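QUALITY CONTROL LOG
STEP: pairwise intake check
CHECKER ROLE: data steward
CRITERIA: each record must contain a sequence immediately followed by its structure tokens, with no blank fields

ENTRY 1 OF 2
RESULT FIELD BELOW
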Amino acid sequence: MKVNWRGVLPAITTPFTAELAVDHEFLAKHCAWLVDSGCGAIVPLGSLGESATLSFEEKIAIVQTCRRGVSDRVPVVAGIAALSTAEAVRLARRAAEAGVGGLMVLPPYVYSTDWREMKAHVGAVIAATGLPCMLYNNPVAYKTDFLPEQIAELAAEHVNLQAVKESSTDVRRVTAIRALIGERLDILVGVDDAIVEAIAAGAVGWIAGLVSAFPAESVALYRYAIEGRTQEAFELYRWFLPLLRLDTVPKFVQLIKLAQEAVGMGNARVRPPRLEIVGSELAEARAVIDTALATRPKVQVSYAGQR
């Protein structure tokens, strides 16, 4: 299935049972709910999906469950990250065999170095299949920063590199990439509390986090921003920002899962080394979520053309 990089593409959480096994039954249900709400793809196995805590076989099983949950309605775009290039390439190929529509290519876990080595790593993953790929640039989390000129170099060498998830937190990167390569790549924002600004700068898609708990609001915010409905966008954005900022701190996984629990679509379980938040940290997070729920706006937006 062809990937449409425009729209809201949820970077989903990985749900766990009480025994911390992957909860495949809920995962399929969650994916279907997100698509029913207007999301244009499902993106498992990212940092929000606790990918580093998952075994290789668990990752493939998650991809298969996501595909079952969405049927043929939207593509699944698998996050590809590993400690070694060889394992990342193997994961990309197995994900392709499992029927994903595209790949989100990350730099290697732990090891961050110069452009020559990082280019060789992500280039090997992009070239491992013929699937459309999105490069994930997140220097805050992974300490590897793919600069606009380096992204342009990759785009010139790999025809199946179709998009970049820009999570540097600097929306000026959107215009810098556009200045170098025009419309060659679709640019998606990967930082929840920069979505309106990034779209104004030229981004066309959103790899979203809080969408796992608030899909209708996420889709509405994206549509308002992309359609230039400025007043509606900023009214919804003002309500949403305290929630969206939960995606920008080290414990974003725990916080987003807590939000899912609050809306009845998931639980707060995480795999160690992460632990569920407690004490004042928990009280502060619940206050943010409870306030948002108490003042939650009604949104209604047409999803025509979204997917």
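ENTRY 2 OF 2
RESULT FIELD BELOW
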Amino acid sequence: MKKQIILAGIIACMSIGAQAQDAATQEPKGKAIVQVFGNFNTGFGSENNSRGFELERSYLGYEYNLGNGLSVKSVLDIGKSSDVSDNNRLAYVKNALVSWKKGNFTLNGGLISTTQFNFQEKFWGYRYIMKDFQDMYKFGSSADLGLSFSYKFTEWISADAIIVNGEGYKKIQINDGLNYGAGVTLTPAKGFQIRLYGGINEGADNSKEDIYNLAAFAGYKGEKFSIGAEYNKMDNASNKKDADQSGYSIFSSVKVAKATELYARFDDLHSKDDWNIAKDEQAAIIGAQFKLGKYVKLAPNFRMNIPKADGTDNKCYAYINFYFGL
């Protein structure tokens, strides 16, 4: 974490210095990043006593274009602990990076967004309501310290590669292993996209297995509706041999008015030989989104979690999610 804080400070100084230098001759090229996710939820049946307001996450940061293809970005992530008994807010540096773009080539360095499921998350489009499948079930981290690059060969094919620590943005580098990944994105027809990705997260020593990730996605997005499906596989979860997991997610949205959309999604998580049966489940969500002006979104929805373990009750919830962002 110390390295991340130092890097964030360097980037912030670069941004301020560049802005002061250009102020006399150029219009401001920077923009603030403010995003707030929250909700009110209530459970039904076995979850009848679960209800309340949540401030799930806040992103606060700044992005600045230095010119000549260079830009810097720093984002602070304020969220809740993964420990359900811990109600304190936790703050992390989510992004602290330098980007350089030249023609069809893009290079990112620092605490960067990872490429494992970033594409699927953007296609899904409702991150403030529910995380992407891989993020939800911890197949990987959304940000990490390292380098990534991408190149667009033609209008219909692009490729990318990434090398990062492999421990996410909430931990310092403890192990010696690294996480390598590569992906290709195809656009065979307007609105139709295919994404393939593979990665290896090294186990660092002989007592830990390498983690292998494979992901395949296909989707269509038009002016009125979108539909997408992804399949994901992770071998040796938590660096444990044969702790394999796989699953798929299918989602769709329909625009029914200028500021109103309907959306639905179904997930299915499975573990090899039921080693993780306590967390294996199917999950469904259906709801609507209303845009209340330029910066605010409101999204009522109904959710159901169907555990695969015998003797476990289904969990049903009603949510009203909200989003504010600049």
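INTAKE CHECK: passed for both entries
DESCRIPTIVE NOTE, ENTRY 2: The chain has one domain: 2-16+29-325.
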